[in-house]
Amino acid sequence: MKEVAVVNSGTPAACIGTGQAAPALVECRSRAAHTDREKNVPRIIDAWMQHPTPRHSADPMFASLRRWTSKTPRPEVITPEMTIAAMDQANVAISMASAWCGPQGWMISNDEVAAVSAAYPGRVVGVASADLAHPMEAVRELRRAVRQLGFKALRIVPWLWNLPPTDRRYYPLFAECVELGIPFCTQVGHTGPLRPSETGRPIPYIDEVALEFPELVIVGGHIGYPWTQEMIAVATKHENVFIDTSAYTARRYPPELVAYMKGRGRRKVLFGTNYPMITPAKALEGFTELGLDDEARDLFLGGNAARIFKV
Fold first, then answer.
1. pLDDT tens string 158-190
2. Which of 14, 63, 110, 112 holds its CA 20 to 30 A away from the CA of 129?
3. What contacts 24+ positions apart, CB below 8 Å, involve 207-215?
4. Domain spans in the chain, listed from the N-terminal domain onward
5. 3 pLDDT exceeds 80?
6. Candidates 3.40.1620.10, 3.20.20.140, 3.30.420.10, 3.30.9.10; CATH matching 41-309
């Protein structure tokens, strides 16, 4: 799979010199992706991505991520057409696009996510965020995002707040997620951005939340490294706890996670990218080398996400 290259003009590099406009290329690739899916190609769902706003992309805390990905130039502004083109390059059918809210305010608002989702219905599906500092407003906003905007999940990034998921400010949202029938998505593992990592430990935090809220469906994104075995243990222990592989390319999946995906964890792990940090095509490089059987492959690439997010 080739990665979609983009330039500051807003035109995918594949268009350069062809005289074809980016939207036309997106439409062409969308038709091709649809045709491929009709040929029994597994439906791929990206469990964690974001269509970033300039204020999100430019935040100083992401300096470490920009350093890690400096070999892959990225434009200052990423258009919706670029996002869809990146999805189509890897035959991604659906992307679960996250809003971002932190102590300083909204970096990507629910309404900004909804606008992209409305422009590409069925391709970009909203994942809400909420303001932990105002619990009742957060609950009302989550209800609005699900009932009016059609969002399918809630995501709170603990390191952004420096509050683990066991903090009392999460609990009204957990109860509302159960009532709305949507999963709670979060980050597990060390923190790549320039923030502390303690909030990403699967044990005790995810374990304790799952004990307190056994009906709550929890998706821990970013694998959980360097506590991958802890995350696998928690996912195995709790029926409603799952893992997504966002922020890692297939070649970087820890061996213990690959073994879990092949065996008893085949219904527990979801494909994710953390786009635009990693494009879907880049995330899938080396995927066939993992040696998954057909069932495990289809569940990982899209089946598990379709079941959990109800898409």
1. 999 999 999 999 999 999 999 999 999 999 999
2. 63
3. 207/234, 207/237, 207/238, 208/166, 209/165, 209/166, 209/170, 209/174, 210/234, 210/237, 210/238, 210/240, 210/241, 211/238, 212/171, 212/174, 213/174, 213/175, 213/178, 214/238, 214/239, 214/240, 215/178, 215/240
4. 41-309
5. no
6. 3.20.20.140
